[in-house]
Amino acid sequence: MKLSQIAQLLNGQLVNLREDIEIRGLKSINKAKKGEITFVADKKYLKDLQINASAVLTKEKLDLEIPQIIVDNPQTSFYRLIDIFYPEEEKAGISKKASISENVEIGENVYIGEFTVIEEGVKIGSSVKIYPNCYIGKNTVIKDNTVIYPNVVIYRDAVIGKNVIIHSGCVIGADGFGYYQENGKHKKIKHVGKVIIEDDVEIGANTTIDRAMVDETVIKKGTKIDNLVMIAHNCEIGENSIIVSQVGIAGSCKIGKNVILAGQVGVADHITIGDNVIVTAKSGVGKNLEAGKVYGSGLQAIEWSKWKKVMFYLYKLPEIIKKLK
């Protein structure tokens, strides 16, 4: 694509252009070379800019000879270019190797890959893509423009909204982890509820979301969930929240809107987290959190010998306090 075309698409001002050049790809600031475009979000990164880049997106004119496209937000404009240069793979048609039961409703322009199994009563909207080796349980509803990547398992009665992305290896709607004691043995609590995934949700690879016991586990619209996250039965995750990798949320928790749970946060059962809360990495949440605050309890890594000394005095703390009294 010509640089002048890119400037027009981004509504940017093109400067330092001596002759229109072909842009063949995009690269980060320290790896861009001839034929590629990069971006500068802040002048402090200029020292990393490879002069071999053919052009740069910037917020203001830089003291460089290479062509520049001046835009309001170089970073966002660069993301738009990724969509333009690397469009989604077009997929359509239903493989003869897929196993589709009777009474399945399938919309227009649907792709269903090889060895996918779709059970009775499933409803699939238009422009849905279901890649190979997936399993879709009975009476599941999958709405328009949703993409389900290979090896996803969706148990029965799930509801998947519009524009949802579910990455490989996810399990949606498995039984919650629930048992009761009878005669000294763990007896399984049957879970007959469902999972509801609202519109515009993305779920990362190998994440699991359990079905409720009798009600619903709900992921509300716009929420983004990273890889390797565990969300237990009866939870509700509010709109536009961010759940980062290796977070574990126990049963019957209610997470508010615009919440960020950083990596490896653990949330105990029956916890309520208010809107706009941030919980920092490796923190354990054992009580309700008020809205609009930042919480954290994770320990930073320190040199091992120092940590051993800290622990030595920590164990002696009761004796020291006793002496001080």
TrEMBL record:
<dbReference type="InterPro" id="IPR001451">
    <property type="entry name" value="Hexapep"/>
</dbReference>
<keyword id="KW-0444">Lipid biosynthesis</keyword>
<keyword id="KW-0441">Lipid A biosynthesis</keyword>
<comment type="function">
    <text>Catalyzes the N-acylation of UDP-3-O-acylglucosamine using 3-hydroxyacyl-ACP as the acyl donor. Is involved in the biosynthesis of lipid A, a phosphorylated glycolipid that anchors the lipopolysaccharide to the outer membrane of the cell.</text>
</comment>
<keyword id="KW-0012">Acyltransferase</keyword>
<dbReference type="Pfam" id="PF04613">
    <property type="entry name" value="LpxD"/>
</dbReference>
<keyword id="KW-0677">Repeat</keyword>
<feature type="active site" description="Proton acceptor">
    <location>
        <position position="233"/>
    </location>
</feature>
<dbReference type="InterPro" id="IPR020573">
    <property type="entry name" value="UDP_GlcNAc_AcTrfase_non-rep"/>
</dbReference>
<comment type="similarity">
    <text>Belongs to the transferase hexapeptide repeat family. LpxD subfamily.</text>
</comment>
<dbReference type="Pfam" id="PF00132">
    <property type="entry name" value="Hexapep"/>
</dbReference>
<comment type="pathway">
    <text>Bacterial outer membrane biogenesis; LPS lipid A biosynthesis.</text>
</comment>
<keyword id="KW-0443">Lipid metabolism</keyword>
<dbReference type="InterPro" id="IPR007691">
    <property type="entry name" value="LpxD"/>
</dbReference>
<comment type="subunit">
    <text>Homotrimer.</text>
</comment>
<protein>
    <recommendedName>
        <fullName>UDP-3-O-acylglucosamine N-acyltransferase</fullName>
        <ecNumber>2.3.1.191</ecNumber>
    </recommendedName>
</protein>
<dbReference type="GO" id="GO:0103118">
    <property type="term" value="F:UDP-3-O-[(3R)-3-hydroxyacyl]-glucosamine N-acyltransferase activity"/>
</dbReference>
<feature type="domain" description="UDP-3-O-[3-hydroxymyristoyl] glucosamine N-acyltransferase non-repeat region">
    <location>
        <begin position="20"/>
        <end position="83"/>
    </location>
</feature>
<keyword id="KW-0808">Transferase</keyword>
<dbReference type="InterPro" id="IPR011004">
    <property type="entry name" value="Trimer_LpxA-like_sf"/>
</dbReference>
